[in-house]
């Protein structure tokens, strides 16, 4: 299977490695693995598409895709070398929480900064009275 989903930095960053032709079944597997983690905690996603050769257009019709990318606990969706079609469609759909990079190192550096801020907010007690 050309899909791997794993914690890069639990519970903050989930990595998704895709390769070959990304099918609707592949994307369903990714979403099924990612959605439960969003229920109780903010999560950032690193999606590596460096080895992707194509994306089935039906992937974008999945209702669960919207459930994943618009989830209130979903933070940044950071892509490494997103496939052309995927890049074009997701950039339009994700409205502000989409970022792409050429290298994994650049993507991880960005996510380290983003999660650092989130961790600080989570660690700071709410002072509203």
Question: What this model shows, in words?
Answer:
By secondary structure, the protein is of the alpha/beta class. It has one domain: Transcription Regulator spoIIAA, CATH 3.30.750.24. Helices cover 40% and strands 32% of the residues. The chain is built from four helices and five strands; from the N terminus they run E-E-H-E-H-E-H-E-H. It has helices spanning 24-38, 63-69, 84-93, 104-123; strands at residues 3-9, 13-22, 43-55, 74-80, 98-101. The chain has a five-stranded mixed beta sheet with strand order 1-2-3-4-5, sandwiched between helices. Helix 2 (63-69) links the parallel strand 3 (43-55) and strand 4 (74-80). The chain is globular and about 45 Å long. The model has no long low-confidence stretch (mean pLDDT 93).
In short, what is this structure?
This protein is of the alpha/beta class and 129 residues long. The chain has helices spanning 24-38, 63-69, 84-93, 104-123; strands at 3-9, 13-22, 43-55, 74-80, 98-101.
């Amino acid at each position: 299977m050309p899909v791997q989903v794993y914690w890069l930095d639990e519970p903050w960053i989930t990595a998704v490695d895709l390769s070959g032709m990304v099918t609707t079944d592949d994307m369903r597997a990714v979403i099924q693995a990612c959605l439960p983690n969003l229920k109780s905690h903010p999560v950032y996603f690193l999606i590596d598409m460096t080895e992707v050769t194509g994306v089935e257009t039906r992937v974008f019709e999945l209702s669960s895709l919207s459930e994943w990318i618009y989830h209130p606990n979903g933070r940044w969706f950071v892509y490494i070398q997103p496939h052309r079609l995927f890049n074009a469609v997701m950039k339009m759909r994700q409205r502000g929480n989409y970022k792409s990079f050429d290298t994994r190192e650049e993507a991880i550096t960005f996510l380290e900064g983003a999660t650092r801020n989130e961790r600080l907010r989570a660690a700071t007690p709410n002072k509203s009275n």
